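Most newcomers find our protein records easier to grasp once they have seen one. The structure tokens are whole numbers drawn from a learned vocabulary of backbone shapes. The record below serves as our worked example for the rest of this section.
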Amino acid sequence: MVNSSMRLAQGAPTMSSSSPTLRTAPKASFNWLSTLYVVLIALIMSGTGWLALREGNTRYMLPFRTDHVAELASQQARLLRQQPTMENIEKYSPELATLSKGTDAQRFVDSRLIEHGLYLAQMPRLNQILLTSHIFTGVACMLLGGWQFWPAFRKRFMRLHRLIGGIYVVTVPISVLLSFAYLTVTAPHNLYTRLTAWVALWLFGTVALVSVGAAVHALKQRRIHEHMGYMALSFACMLVAPMLRLNWVMLAWLFPHIDQETLSLVTMGIMMPECLLIGYGLIHVNRQYDRTMTRRTPSDMTRIAQQTFQRAMPLWYALAAGALVISVMHFAYGLGMSGTESANKMVNAALLDREALALRDHPLVRIAFALSSSLALLLGLHLFNRLLNQAPAKTLHASLKGMARGMLILSMLAGTGAIYLGWHIGLAPAQQWLSGGTLYTTSGALILLFAAVMAGNIAKGHLAMLKESLAFLLCLLPFAPLLLIYLWVLQWLPIPADYIQQGQGYVLAAGSCGTLMFAAMFYAVLGQASREHG
């Protein structure tokens, strides 16, 4: 955040003096955990930034220092395959050497990362300039970006906080635009993670640009709570590359027998919710729960968004009803993806068979999962619409509390069913069935997480946080019908057959099931909880 305010009167427009105020006091443990959370993220990102700086200064600058870089890279790669020692890996790539220290050197030597490094050494000069420039401008974000979300640091070193924020809002757009230019002149098959990464980089980059622009606008409007939220969202979007590499190491610990290429596909499937949850955590720990806050009036954008959402309620109900029909047809009475023509075109047969077998062997679970997730979505939409009309000062009405409890029970059934099915599809990835039950398991765990948060908010009567947790649940519940919809859409796109054989079609569809979480993140930035405690 470029700026902050110690006075709420300057931080944002407020209601009249008669507006109710909020007095809450967090436990000391929350403050310690919040500090630990932010500092840990900042340290990890600073470490990855330092590593990227080393990699850029050696490997990526090499083409500009010698005319024989392609020959040199080929010699290093040949030597590395013959003698996969840490010394040879360090010469080839400081980044790979660091990753190998956390796992196994042979894992990366046997992967396509070596061939990808040869492409980087031989690609056109324009591509080299764009990629190298992107790396060096992105380094500033990784080295410094995380520290601006540490409340104690910001309060004590406000000038330094503003300096870091200023560097951030300048370098992030430049780095993102350079990555867009690089992606424009680089075919997806020339990226290590190929089509899935190509699409993800465009998506995250676009949201990062929008978020930084919105953060600067909110700062000018002195809406500091929105500024902080937008900055956290932009930072989450910039975590894609660092988290990709960290996930390689963590997944290798969990599945040491699985090859690097398969684990990379799994990473692309879980990276979106992972990055957004980190961003949401930064929003949460920067809220001022220990201060007396005057409720701020919603911004014009917030009012417009709420009015648009509520006017479109018939459309949302229709879409939820459509999700119910798809879930009942293909998950209650059907056997998942195997019952659709598009999935048979886009998904590996081994994965289709494993999902069908798990659904066939557990009919009660699949029926309960399909019905509970669909009914929770319909009930949640109705509840969310009612809560948006509820005055902030009032306590939760008894009928709404009963509806919230019903929504909570259905969500817990849906999350538990998803984890159970994912477990039986198989948590361990493999070349034959790609990421296995990762989509079911991850989605189910996230549903249970926000259901638990919702339960706590119901017990506390915290209306603002109840709406926020409900927004995340609404975005997570329809993952199963969304998977089938995305596969249906992808079948009409000119995706090469070898991409589909490598699992890119399924991973792209499965990874896209989390895109609705962006809507929940924007609600977290603009919603009542941020206005009361931001």
About this structure: The chain has a mean pLDDT of 88. The radius of gyration is 24 Å. The chain is about 75% helix and 0% strand. The CA atoms of residues 154 and 269 lie 34 Å apart.
